[in-house]
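Tutorial, part two.
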Amino acid sequence: MPTYRTPLPTLLATTLEAGINRLLSMDESSTSRLAAVKGRRVKVVLEGLGIDLHFAFSEFRVAVGLEDDGRDNREPDAVISGSPFALFAMALPDDKEQ
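Running the prediction step on this input gives:
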């Protein structure tokens, strides 16, 4: 597990978790969508920043932390890595489809 010298990674994880769960609370179908990924985990490696974020999905929410909770010592179901710019670019719609 990386050791962080500033509180910024923790603030990032906390802010992401609050924002994601706030958005999910506004979507009536989020419970059924989350049920499909319940128990899954995703690790996001922010290259260039040295920050690893761990996303854990339950039936009602998404937990975001700086380390795996380690409850069952499983590997993440998926690992996504890239620079923040590259990860944001993946989320943008493709101009060619317009």
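Residues 44 and 80 are 5 Å apart (CA to CA). In part three we will examine how such features are distributed along the chain.
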